[in-house]
Design a protein that fits this description.
single chain; alpha+beta; Aldehyde Oxidoreductase, domain 4; 3 domains; 7-stranded mixed β-sheet; 5-stranded mixed β-sheet; 18 helices
């Protein structure tokens, strides 16, 4: 492909390989070169952020510069292209992210429910441009009016004569045409692919067991390593006795690295047995004495002092003083691990100044940069294979898996080393959702209308992960939010729905308390306060309608409702719950309503909501990360349990119809679920849940 100068504001259509393919390049938003674009600078070279290519067989390839984490992006983005291109779905092929992310025009990173949201318009424009050029090429080939040529199912059809030409036959002629500046886009009513169920393109390999995940990696000559890490966060290794470890059959080497000690072996079992045989002496951790309960106690005291004000509307303290009723509450939210089903892992090869990495990641660009920094090479000298990930939920936004692999591999040049983490390694060395404490005060006037709201949030982590306390969606005339954050030795990171998880629970549980204090129905109380959030209100109404809010339930079953907005989307959920005399909570049904704009694939939307509900129920009912003396106590699913099939309720999913551009769906259904369950528990028992996970002892009769 010849180098040329072009403006990133333009589409680029070029012949590739002497006319064997039509290639449409388009720049997606959020590029690293945004400043240059703002100045109108030209860029030398071919720098597309995504491209569509059509070969002479009519096969349409779409580069998906997002990571497949189980959310279905390998299917969804090609669906957008196929719809606008009028392509035969059987001819669509997704291509993985490039193996040299440093050449890509934007950072390759998947998170925040942004994949479809950021690709929607650019991919439609690119596909429409290709479609219009193929129409022009066909019209010129036949010598007919272009208006008489229509695109249908990967063919251009001349309506008057019935003549047809497949896209493959037209790519060479089309590649010589100018790109239309503003190609017409299809109306939603004309969609034939979008909004219809499509099986995931990788589903056959996943079901058949041939899909390659990181943990499945098996390369010629590859060795396996596990790492012994500090018993508490921040502890420093003083000495190593590896004599017994080296005697274990299959152990090849024992290597000291900054993170601890790596045992390299011919197989995983030998590596694990070698690690068991190590005798290590560690300095006392600087986190000694640090624990979850101590942090909660510290935050309770700190909440008595003013925090950083993040939102201030009206005069909340004065309005509280004049309120007819005042409600006060506090909430405790623990550290939380991501627990993707595939534990962390990565493989690396360092040889002759080059690095090759195989990793299931959310951040190809970040992983490449991290590998380069560890190996002391340029990012372009790192070839990165982004593998399918068995779940992520934000955990794979950290490159610590890649760093660990390269640290070991650079000490064994020329050898590919696969560093695997056990479940215990993954849970005890995670990047956790921060522990937070919340103190709230709310005021009602004589008519039971909310007139004041004060929220002080304190958390063990950065503000973006803790939240700001200003996420309240309701129209309350006097509102004040304050925050305190504290950096600790406990590593924190983005968790599915990030701060909206604990904020949704706190805000919606407290809103329920205000409704009870006002003597009003919780659904109607919310409805009356959501006048400035029409999309969230539509979700609330739809969830209440589909759940039969207000209608009789079986004896012993009670409803709770909650709603929340996050990641440009909106969701409301109703939970039907019973509580046994022993305090055991059973969720019988969940009804979810979402507003996500245009739906790409309803099957994947359903799966995402079901997955979100499963995760949210797990941390509501089952598990938490407990820090004791600077270390995580939990280690596997026996003490960090998740919902099982026999625990799960049916999940009904409803969508508010919309022709808006699509928004996120992976994270928005998480926040409403815990408060919906907790509010139902209150309806059943009269007891408020102010700490998660729910302790059955508090609910025993």
């Amino acid at each position: 492909m010849t180098e040329r100068t072009f403006s990133r504001r333009d589409f680029l259509l070029t012949g590739a390989g002497a006319g064997v393919a039509l290639v449409v390049a388009v720049n997606l938003p959020l590029t690293d070169l945004a400043a240059e674009e703002a100045r109108g600078d030209a860029v030398v070279g071919f720098h597309p952020a995504a491209w569509i290519s059509i070969d002479t067989d009519g096969i349409v390839s779409v580069v998906v510069d997002e990571h497949e984490l189980g959310q279905g992006v390998l299917t969804a983005l090609p669906m957008i292209v196929a719809e606008e291109l009028e392509a035969d779905w059987s001819k669509m092929r997704p291509l993985p992210p490039p193996e040299d992310p440093s050449t890509w025009v934007r950072t390759i990173s998947t998170g925040g429910s942004t994949s479809i949201r950021t690709a929607w318009q650019p991919l439609r424009n690119a596909a429409a441009a290709a479609r219009e050029m193929l129409r022009t090429a066909a019209a010129q080939t036949w010598g007919v009016d272009r208006a008489e040529c229509v695109a249908r199912n990967s063919e251009i059809v001349h309506q008057k004569s019935g003549r047809r030409l497949g896209y493959g036959a037209l790519v060479e002629a089309a590649s010589r045409l100018p790109v239309p500046a503003a190609p017409p886009l299809k109306a939603n009513k004309d969609f034939t692919i979008l909004g219809k169920p499509k099986p995931r393109v990788e589903i056959r390999e996943k079901v058949g067991g041939t899909a390659l995940y990181g943990y499945d990696l098996d390369l010629p000559g590859m060795l396996t390593a596990v790492v012994a890490r500090p018993p508490a966060f921040g502890a420093v290794l003083k000495s190593v006795d590896d004599v017994a470890a080296r005697r274990v059959a299959g152990v090849v080497d024992v290597i000291r690295i900054p993170q601890g000690v790596a045992v390299v072996a011919k197989n995983t079992w030998s590596a694990l047995e070698g690690r068991k045989a190590l005798r290590l002496d560690w300095d006392a951790s600087p986190a000694k004495g640090l624990g979850s309960e101590a942090l909660f106690a510290e935050f309770q005291e700190l909440a008595k002092q003013p925090g950083q004000v993040t939102r201030n509307i009206g005069d909340a303290p004065a309005a509280l003083g004049a309120a007819a009723k005042v409600v006060e509450s506090e909430f405790f939210s623990p550290f939380m691990d991501h627990i993707p089903m595939e534990p962390m892992n990565a493989a690396a090869l360092v040889k002759d100044g080059k690095v090759e990495v195989w990793v299931p990641t959310q951040i190809a660009t970040g992983s490449q940069q991290a590998a380069a920094a560890v190996a002391g090479v340029k990012p372009g000298d790192v070839k990165l294979h982004s593998l399918l990930a068995g779940g992520a939920f934000g955990r794979r936004l950290s490159p610590d898996d890649t760093i660990l692999a390269v640290e070991v591999a650079k000490r064994m040049p020329g050898t590919t080393v696969h560093v695997v983490w056990t479940r215990e390694d993954s849970i005890r060395n995670g990047t956790y959702r921060p522990l937070t404490y919340h103190r709230l005060r709310g005021g009602l006037d004589a008519a039971g209308k909310p007139v004041a709201w004060m929220h002080h949030v304190l958390g063990a982590g950065a503000g973006g992960l803790v939240g700001r306390g200003d996420e309240v969606p309701y129209a309350i005339p006097n509102l004040r939010a304050e925050i305190h954050t504290k950096k600790t030795a406990i590593p924190v990171g983005a968790w599915r729905s990030v701060h909206f998880t604990h904020m949704g629970w706190v805000i919606e549980t407290f809103m329920d308390e205000l409704a009870v204090a006002a003597g009003k129905d919780p659904y109607q109380f919310r409805r009356d306060a959501l006048g400035n959030s029409p999309k969230l209100l539509a979700c609330l109404d739809l969830a209440a309608e589909k759940a039969g809010w207000g209608k009789p339930l079986p004896k012993g079953v009670f409803r709770g409702i909650a709603c929340a907005s996050s990641f440009a989307s909106h969701a409301a959920e109703v939970a039907e719950v019973s509580v046994s005399p022993e305090g055991r909570v059973r969720v019988h049904r969940v009804v979810a309503a979402v507003h996500v704009g245009t739906v790409i694939n309803p099957d994947m939307l359903q799966a995402q909501v079901e997955g979100a509900v499963t995760l949210a129920l797990s941390y509501t009912l089952k598990h938490q990360i407990t820090v004791e003396d600077g270390a995580v106590r939990e280690g596997n699913f026996d003490d960090y349990p998740i919902m099982r099939m026999d625990d799960m309720p049916p999940v009904e999913v409803y969508v508010v119809p919309s022709e808006d551009a699509p928004t996120g769906i992976g994270e928005p259904p998480v926040p409403p679920l815990p408060p919906a369950v907790c509010n139902a528990i209150f309806a059943a028992t009269g007891k408020r849940i102010r700490r998660l996970p729910i302790d059955p002892k508090l609910l025993r009769v």
